[in-house]
Amino acid sequence: MNDTLQRRDRSTWQARAATLAHEGRCFIDGGYRPAEGGATFDDVSPIDGRVVAQVARGGAADVDAAVAAARKAYDGGAWRRVEPKERKRVLLRFAELIRADLERLAILETLDVGKPILNSVNVDVPFAADCIAYYAEFADKRYDEIAPTGPTETALVRREPLGVVGAIVPWNYPLIISAWKLGPALLAGNSVVLKPAEQSPLTAIRLGQLGLEAGLPPGVLNVVPGYGEEAGKPLALHPDVDMISFTGSTEVGKLMLRYAGDSNLKRVALECGGKSPHVVMADANLEAAASGIAWGIYYNMGETCHAGSRVIVHESVKDRLIDAIAKVAATITLGHPFDPATQMGALIDRGHLGRVLGYIESGVAEGARLALGGRQVMADTGGNYVEATVLDGVTSSMRVAREEIFGPVLTVSTFRDEAEALRLANDTVYGLAAAVWTLDMNVAHRLSGALRGGTVWVNSYDRSSMATPFGGFKQSGFGRDRSPHAIDKYTDFKTIWTAYT
Question: Which among 46, 233, 393, 416 has the fewest CB atoms less than 10 Å away?
């Protein structure tokens, strides 16, 4: 934690942001270059609707150049053949450069995404650095295997990198999710083409430069900003890309599978949407549950794939729980993202603002009761701000119960017994996360085992570390980020069988 940055006020942060020059070009083969033909697009801040930078509008030609650079670097062995201790040194240096660039990266993240500046300072930037450092430590600690054979033969089982990895990341946690992909992919010896969301390209472009400064050879890490149809799709269809690691919506995740099949049958790892439930039993500590639920949906403005957006609560304690949630929500400050007191900032863009407000209107129209919030606020700023919202009396057939809203909107439904609670919680196409709130550990074990989610919290929410895998079941995707298990998807096994004469 940087004490100097912690003490800054809003005007100081805004003044510092105003002095920064923003790099918006592609980063390919160790250098910046404009998009083919010089095409650009406006990078608009959700804070106030102002244009932050002109960013290269990458397209198929730029993807071709990035993939060619990545392939050349991979085939030449400048990174994959580096000794493990040297690969570790470079990745640790990469992590340190991210930490040293804390101020700039935090400002870029807040400008692009609208999240509170102290979240960027205390969470997003340091967590990204920690992730790169975590995987660096595996470089000289991973072993190949010797399979059992007869005395005249040896079977060596080796882990080898896949080759060129296309990493497509979303706009809600650009730095953290980029690091989740870059750390294990680079550790394994792959080359990477990183495609950030068009709403949040600036920190990804900066990562390209920092990686080069850390010692990554040119071409090992390339960054192509642009729109999904124009840059993401060509990357996913590219015949010389060996893997696509994608985080984003389920709708686009399905396209990734199609693109893999239509091209070279490349590997695909998907972390997609969520509609994560909190199951609150009658005996739960309601104060603790209310805190976990409120922060689980209102942190990052609800723009979190595993946000706990559905509360399924025993009918006998529903009203008390809603009151407790409202009290916690009242302590979560909604305001200008560069104000250090702000804990909820702006939604990503004008279109998403309309989408979230539309879901709230839809819920009320279908019979839900607006128990808290529900309105756009701070409209005079030109930014995209919505109050912390609770919809009560939600049934499973309503759109707000079935579709991912990706905003600060919590739905509340009730149950009468444990079987009904489980049925309602699992009644979704998603399976990213869930939580159980109860003082009865028998109930906790039964429900946590039966809930279909990649992570199930008991009497807590959103607790994690790099040591635990993250990902989902069902239409939340497959493959895992974080933990040693994430390395597996960026490698494959090769058996070398030797017979002695």
Answer: 416
